[in-house]
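dude i think i finally got it to work??
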Amino acid sequence: MSRAELTTRSLLVCLDGAPAVDLPDGDSVLFGWRGGEITVGTDQALTAGRIHAFGDYWLMSNYGAAGTYCVENLEGAGEYVKVRAGRVGVPIPFELSRVTLTVGAGSNSFTVYAPERRSTAGPDGAGIPLLDEESRYFQVLVCLCEPRLRDCGVAAVPTPAQVSARLSASDRPLGRSAVNYHIDYLATKLGIVAPRGMTRAWKRVTLATVALKFDLVRPEHLRLIPGLVPGGDDQGDHHLRQHPMQRVPATPSRRR
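look at this
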């Protein structure tokens, strides 16, 4: 399914082992459990919550009495929205989301595909970029963000020694002292000031957090790092996340 085709619809709700549910703009659908499996539809017996398609984002309601639902951004680095019990009409800004209703094994989650966001940027972009993506310091920043980009935000930020080893896989080795220099430069450039008593580790974690939060580093930037993926294989980009539209089935009815 192409982006052009998806813009004619608002949402696509996909459950494992069931046909995808096409939800046009302005419509809503209920979800809940039936026979121990999550079900999406218009049956009023489905009382866990509701999804409402609204333009290029969507709203989620939690009709439960106790549990919190988690909506994870599958394209982000650990971003998520919590929808607590009793909350109605919580806006979800993600284009590709995994909704988890309970913690544990069994049928407890489903995926929501939303339309591509409309951009207000002009044809020439938004002006001069904050960071030079061809610079050595930007490679250092990408290395700091790499584990979170590959592991959905749960991995630790690399040490200067690990960044040095990662970048030294190319024909331009970078020592640990040089890595620390670039980290200090990035912190100054991005306006990050460590509170008194904070360690250098705090600075690395904050740099990665800010870079991912404001999309200064994105999954496509991982190609700027030479060598093999740490702890991975020799397939390199195999570990990159697919574009969400590459995951959408050609026709919803073919999902099994």
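Confidence is low (pLDDT under 50) at residues 1-7, 233-256.
im so relieved honestly
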